[in-house]
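To fix ideas, we give here one paired sequence and structure record:
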Amino acid sequence: MAAPAQISQDELEELREAFAKIDVDSHGHIGTDELNDLFKAANLPLPGYRVREIIQDLTKTGDLHDGKVTFNEFANVVHGLKSTEVAKTFKKAINKKEGINAVAGTSEQSSSGTQHSYSEEEKVAFVNDDTIVTWVNDTLTQAGKGTISGFKDGSIATSMPVLDLIDAIQPGSIRYDLIKVEDLTEEEKLNNAKYAISMARKIGARVYALPEDLVEVKPKMVMTVFACLMARGMKRV
């Protein structure tokens, strides 16, 4: 099975890096018992029951070979998880309860009938990059702030889009008098980034990226910052 053409080359490379972290012997495949670790390495943490369902699906479709998962099969699974339909379902989340929502009106259920709910952070893992960028820009626009073109936008090096988004989510939280906006030195960019990461965590976003990730505009890590802020922002709805 070939990797899906709909996944960008950049994302494929990131998935390959994650796969290589688990496939330490470079065999080109991993065991199903390692699949959960692989999703975590790819910044797509899934509940254990969901991983078991994926394994069952791969078994039914004949895509497992002696209990092994190849990279292309993994890439296809990721593409399925990030599909537009899942993203739409995610955006319809209702039944809010202490930061945990049920999807499409009902919680996901395992084959045993156990009810499961997704945290906001878990659900954002299913959403594709375009959905996150759209949400970020909509939120920034509503707050009268500038937007981004994507996770490689040069303005991210100043951390201003992140700081503006934090302030849009929790108005008045950012002290703009502490931020250098124009003609920034590398040290000033880093100071802005440290402030942005600190404030993101302070308002409740589970950000694990480093300030350097913003300054260097590392797309994958930048995406995780905005995804975590999106998860935090959606709790306001």
About this structure: The longest strand covers residues 94-97. Residues 84-118 have pLDDT under 50 and may be disordered. The two ends are 40 Å apart (CA to CA).
